[in-house]
Amino acid sequence: MMSSTKRSEPTAKATDNIRQLEKLVLSSNENLNNIVAIMKLVETGQDETKFYAMKSLQRIFVHFIDSGDILPHLTPSSKKNEPADALSSVKVWLRKKYFGYVNILLKLLHHEEPGLQIPALDGLMAIVLKVSEAFCRAEQTAPSFVNILFPSVIAHLIFNDQFNDKLLESWRQQYLLKFDDVRFFTLVNIRRLLENRRSGAKLSDDFILGADLSSTAAAEALENISTDVLATNIFQIIQDLRMPTIPSELDGFFAGTPEKSTSKKSTDGSSLKKRAHADSSSKISKSGRKLTDLQEHRKVFTKCWLEFLKVSLPTFVYKQVLTNFHEMVLPHLTTPVLLMDFLSSSYDVGGVISLLSLNGLFLLMHKHNLDYPDFYPKLYGLLKPDIFYVKYRARFFKLAQIFLSSTHLPTYLVCAFAKRLARLALLAPPPVSVAILPLVYNIIVMHPAAQSLLHRAPKHDPTNQVLMLKLDADEIVSSDPFSFDEMDPSKCRASESSLWEIHALTNHYVPSVSTMAKIFDIQGEMRKQQYKLEDEVVDQSYQSMLQFELKRRNKHGFPLAFNKPSLFFSADLSNFDGFSFQKTDAVATESQESPRQTRRLQ
């Protein structure tokens, strides 16, 4: 935003000129032509001059709307039902200039400078408020939000390739998250715009209000924006909306508190006729009552999201949509099962998209009785080495524990997950192995039948326990019936195998991994009920592991060799395994002359 503490001399002169012109306009109708001069400054002046001219025009037109000289709720071409005095040349001229001013503000929303975009948005919303007040006065109804100029504001926000973070923040904090009626009609208008674009129809006049309606240039400029920009802008607006959960939370209204909705039905015939007459004579009273009805808010929220999800979303928006979908969208829908197709198709995509759709799909299965028999086979298919490097790895491990906690899962399925996770822990980087091992442990604790994977003895040595085996790795893998490449958990033969990978990890070169592998008791006694998959466990990295080791105190010192030497130098230097030394006469003589030093070193 423009926040210069000291204005330049030309700007100061222009500002003073604007103030003088504004005073003349407000003092007498004879000076109305000065409005044209101020409008030219908005279009052609420097940025700071544009700002002051814009604010001046806002005060001028608000004054004439309040005085009744301008009827802002009528469209530029509307003459029907106009009061007789509105046909006077002065008022007709004023109304044309008013729509020219609105057109300037809409164009400034596409300016690259946020310092002009935000004041333009504030000016438009001030006019939206005055439009609502003027309409309610004309219709003699209670104050309420009127959706006349507002559709055009929404159109120029979402069909905008200059929609930046500062404009978004101002829009959300000052209007969208603050007022229930603004949120309601924002969702209504976004849905209408998306339906319009999907059907291929041209934008209606209320969406390009304020533009030069004799030309289609404004409509074409809005319609030709790329789908990626449109989807990104819409998602930034509708994400993380603070939807009300109880009727009493509907308490913030931008254009005045509307009439309360009521579900009581009167048995009095005359009162029913009066209500029917009132509803039929004024649409504003109907929309006003909708604004205080929680169910109506949920309906428009549902319709908007259903229409938005029909758009071809770019990948980065697709991921963002699914990230908090189960928390920010599903709980506020009137019929969550309508998103079954979207979530199931997302789950079929594979990779990160499938991982992010897990929450929403499982919520539909758990709370809304969605039948999805391929859920666990596809979840099994996500367990690939690629999962090591996914940004949402920690989230996946936590969800996997929730999904596998059901006591109704068949044993073969539980064994398949435990075995595949153990094999992945063997292949994974140390930070991932540390996260996988507690998950495998919890699976076995939750499903005691899977403990057979710990007790099963090898065929060639039935007296031994699998966790005490000390065989060569090649021999173990070749005798393991488990098929890692088989993606069907019912055919991978995990229930016939054993968790020999756990024993292998007890000898891991990273101490934290080997220590974690030892939580599986070799006698099969699960000493701990379950491990909490906290963020510091499942979201570790090489850096966090290094920091932990550096901060840890070691009472016994740090080993510097694989085998602890009995002396520093032996007489024949035989304690240096892997090295060969050639004795010289000088060395032999020195060793003979200083036997005390050799004994001291010993």
Explain how this protein is built:
It is a single chain. With 602 residues, the protein is mostly helical. Helix content is 56%, strand content 0%. α3 packs parallel to α5. The termini are far apart.
Write the layout of secondary structure elements.
Elements: H1 9-27, H2 34-44, H3 47-67, H4 89-108, H5 114-139, H6 150-158, H7 165-176, H8 180-199, H9 217-223, H10 227-238, H11 269-281, H12 283-290, H13 294-308, H14 315-323, H15 325-328, H16 340-349, H17 351-367, H18 375-381, H19 393-403, H20 411-427, H21 430-446, H22 452-455, H23 473-479, H24 500-505, H25 511-517, H26 535-538, H27 542-551, H28 585-593, H29 595-601
Helix pairs in contact: 1-2, 1-3, 2-3, 3-5, 4-5, 5-7, 6-8, 8-13, 14-17, 16-17, 19-21, 20-21, 21-25
Helical amount: 55-70%
**Strand-residue proportion:** under 5%
Biggest beta sheet summary: none
Number of strands: 0
Order of helices and strands: HHHHHHHHHHHHHHHHHHHHHHHHHHHHH
Task: Give the termini distance in whole angstroms.
Answer: 77 Å
- The value of Rg in angstroms is 37 Å
**Class of secondary structure makeup:** mainly alpha
* Discrete helix count: 29
